[in-house]
From TrEMBL:
Residues 1-40 are annotated as: Disordered. PANTHER family: PROTEIN YHFA. Transmembrane segments: none annotated. This is Redox protein. It comes from Meridianimaribacter flavus. It comes from the Bacteria. Residues 1-22 have a biased composition (Polar residues). It holds the Pfam family OsmC. SUPFAM superfamilies: OsmC-like (SSF82784).
Amino acid sequence: MTNKVSTHWKGNSQFESDNPSGKTLFMDTSEEHGGHNSGLRPKAMMLSSLAGCSGLDVVSILDKMKVKISDFRIDTYGELTEEHPKYYHTVSVEYHFYGDDLNEDKIKKAVDLSVEKYCGVMEMFRKFANVKTSIHYHNS
């Protein structure tokens, strides 16, 4: 399977990129680096992709397990190398679950399945970064 994404320069440091879903997004850099801060930053989008990939897995698995949660958030942190080309050498993925009487065993199983088996973006990150994960339960 091949995915195609077209990215078009819109002037200055701005780019517009499409997606196989037909949606588009804008990328830019900070004013300090010559941009207008008008779009998403490319490296940070990689962290969003990681969280989105794993999050989609987790909610799907929890749904199949009939596990109820009231809210779910993933905080993802990436530490860049000092030298160019700068890339994320260490990434932390924090899974936060909210609800009444959370089923911690099933939630952990869902996260583990995503991290260890299903999330392709997670596997890609492991090729260049030390990826750490943690789960936080917030019972009401």
